[in-house]
Amino acid sequence: MDVRLVDGPPSLISTFFDLGEHGYTTAEFFASGEATAYEPAGATGDDGAWPVRPGRRAPFTTRLVVYRPADPAAFGGTVVVEWLNVSSGADAPACWLTTHRQLIRDGAAWIGVSAQRDSIDGESLFSRLSATEGDFSSITLPPLKKTDPERYAPLDHPGNAFSFDVFAQVGRLARQEGGLLGPLRASRVLAVGQSQSAAHLVTFVNAVAPVAGGYDGYLIHGRPGGPALLDGARWESRAGRVRIRTDGDAPVITVQSETDVAGLLRSAGSRQPDGERFRLWEVAGAAHADTYTIDAAFRDSGRRGADELAAMLAPRSAPLGAAFPLPINSGPQQHYVAQAAIAALDRWVRTGAPPARADRLELEPGEPVRLRPDGHGIATGGVRTPWVDVPVAVLSGLGQEAAPGAALLFGSTRPFDGATLRRLYPRGAGDYLPAFRAAAERAAAAGFLLAADLDEIVTVAAASFPS
Questions:
Q1: Ranges of the chain with pLDDT below 70
Q2: Which of 14, 50, 134, 381 falls between 20 and 30 A from 168, CA-CA?
Q3: Which residues lie below 8 Å from residue 321, measured CB to CB, with a gap of 6+?
Q4: pLDDT tens, 3-15?
């Protein structure tokens, strides 16, 4: 793979604050080479052990975005390579936006890969949803060649069937001295992907990594039950049964919200036991997307005050210009747990110390899949955080079923009424905050939150407590 540095800022809707103030540089590269499309060489069963063989080959030129510490002494040795999400029609660094606070804190380098053709000259998943199921045009974005036709004219993607090998080649490239990382030398290279990208990573782990070369570890965040197809289609449902193979050397952490398990993405059937190389964390009260996703993720530099963060995270009923039946999920547990997950994966690869094992979300018997609620209506089981164990609202990954299409990804917030709050916390914040801090400390001790985040978590909770 040959790479060429491109002058000027990349087209990528990412962090709005200045990464330079955090000691990071930003660069864009065009990467060119020849990629292989893989095809099944046997049964592709639900166990995930999929034999493949190389098929067609084609030339490609795609783009890579690199964030890295400017000072080699600040580099922690970890490189995170993200399969950029293309659901909106443009590349979205979903995992970076969710975990960037921890990556910067650890001095990690990050590489975003335009692995799929969709974000170069294709259409969005949301544009098709809006045409058939509702108006979500405000979250459909133009691909690179329409965003800046002159800059991105050299890009040439042969199709999504080749995306898996492109991603494998970038993993190998990240280990080379010079090039993408300048003077930095990677000690370990992790792969991450969220939502649609997570479906592609499932297929990558199951089929392509054993033959094309893989990564040292994987964070698969918010996967659908079905995997992406090797021929380049989005994914298949398989009734959500396909598991992730665990016979490789690289460990995998899968982080799922309620939406992913029992909602739109229907992954309950893909559940599998934890093992030497696998962990599944299902986060109670979390949605596939929430108020952090649509606002704070872009502006959260780590230097915001508690009141400002609380305002970014507040419930809202009309995000992205579309009216929702209920306020969308406003619990910030998703990104805090994801930060703990990427830190745990890095430690797992670096030291061999495995992450915590988590209970699964509890389900009611029978079909369809339904979460088992507690007396408030909050899901039981799963990864527990203070937002569900010391609640001021019912946070859920479900609740927007009266709305069409992409609204189902955003979950819901049902604030408690005054009588319920007074019953739970007779002295108001005087009862709430000590209980909240104790629950946060339990979650951190269990491995699902980071100790470095605890003070911020509690101060944001204080600023958010209903007056």
A1: 123-139, 234-239
A2: 14
A3: 138
A4: 999 999 999 999 9
